[in-house]
Amino acid sequence: MRDIGKKPFEYGCVVKGDFFCPRPDVEKTLKRHMELGQNVVVVGERRMGKTSLIVSSFSKIKKARVIYVDLLNIRTISDFCDRVASAASRVGKGESFIHRTLSFLARLRPTLSVDPQNGMPVISVDARVAEEESSFDDVISMIGKFAEKERVIVVFDEFQDILKLDHPDRALAKLRSKIQFLSDTCFVFSGSVRRDMVSIFTDYASPFYKSAATLSVGEIDDGDFVDFLQKRFRVGNRTAPREFLLKVLDTANRVTGDVQQLCDAIWMESADGVVLSGGDLKNGIDRVLKQEGAAFEVQTRTLTRYQMKALSGIARFGGAHVFSAEFIGRAGLSSVPTAKRALDKLIELGILYLHDREYKIFNPFLREWMKRT
Ligand SMILES: Nc1ncnc2c1ncn2[C@@H]1O[C@H](COP(=O)(O)OP(=O)(O)OP(=O)(O)O)[C@@H](O)[C@H]1O
Ligand SMILES: [Mg+2]
Fold it and tell me: Which of 11, 15, 18 to mutate to test the pocket of ligand 1 (most atoms within 8 A of CB)?
């Protein structure tokens, strides 16, 4: 019998409260930056837990207004302004606050509507007016006006998408020139693509970067994570031995979100009251592969025969000795240059990465899927 009463794991969303595994060191550092008004760049791979960490940290700061701006997939300056305006409309309550915000943005011809999902007021700007670069001045000035009265924390999440604007260098220069005058306000720039985030600050905005602290969000400490996962499994009425959970962490490459997805699948597939073992892990992986298989099919459809062989070889035999005669033979690659070409392309496509001279597959579930195809 499956117990689907109390769902102990969440994935694919920001996690809070009992679903959030404390990461005391990074939380403490980030909270301190926020309190001191120190700008900070938060970097990490996808699904490592950047947004959840930021939300958890700012919710613990008393008396601060938080303007949380998600820049995912912005394309134009007016998109940027729109996201900031709608984020600002969420930070305060009451008519007078909304009226003040509308007046700060007056030049951008703001309009007020109601968010159909939660019934809350939302401000948006006129796309034709807001398309000029001077619009950055308006939205940053609005933040400055808020900051005159209280402590303000501004989070620009998915900040790397600023590179999707037509002239990202000009946009960044403009932002930088305005932001540097708001010395009491903490700006958090968070991004999921490490290389892009680093290049933004080194190639386009290095003076800006030097004044900001950097915080890397990587793996959660094994001990903390295992304790947390044991508790969560207990809530879901399963017993998860430590050794079992270490295998789960290995399987999911210690990517926080992937660990949660796998644990959810294990929980869904296992019997109520059981002590979890290898069979449950296998059933959990099968469940995830059923969920993700179609996406992997699409992702690998355009790969060449040799790219597929290289990928499958790494999934099966590991990526530490890919140029050895043994690997080339077992993987069915014809020569070292053929292997090199295939691997370079797989890196360019973001499917593989190199770590300590070992080729690794980014997505641990793609690795499991490749083992089975
Ligand atoms: N501290 C945590 N404790 C438990 N699970 C977490 C924690 N942080 C993240 N997760 C898991 O990872 C998932 C992704 O978290 P989050 O969205 O915060 O990561 P992210 O790094 O911002 O991801 P993205 O790169 O997609 O923006 C969550 O849904 C949750 O399953
Ligand atoms: Mg995020």
Answer: 15
What is the whole-number distance in angstroms between the Cα of residue 49 and the centre of ligand 2?
7
What are 200-230's pLDDT values in tens digits? Answer: 777 766 666 667 888 999 999 999 999 999 9
> How far apart, in Å, are the Cα atoms of 323 and each of 306, 312, 320, 353?
14, 15, 9, 16
Distance 69 CA to ligand 1 centre (A): 17
Q: Does domain 22-216 have CATH number 3.40.50.300?
A: yes
- Give the pTM: 0.90
- Residue 278 near residue 310 (C-beta atoms within 8 A): no
If you measure from the C-alpha of residue 343 to the centroid of ligand 2, how many angstroms do you get, rounded to a whole number?
28
**Nearest CA owner, ligand 1 atom 19:** 49
pLDDT digits (tens, 9 = 90+) for 80-126: 999 999 999 988 778 888 999 999 999 999 999 998 888 888 999 99
302-372 fold: Arc Repressor Mutant, subunit A (1.10.10)
Residues 6+ positions from 148 with CB-CB distance below 8 Å? none
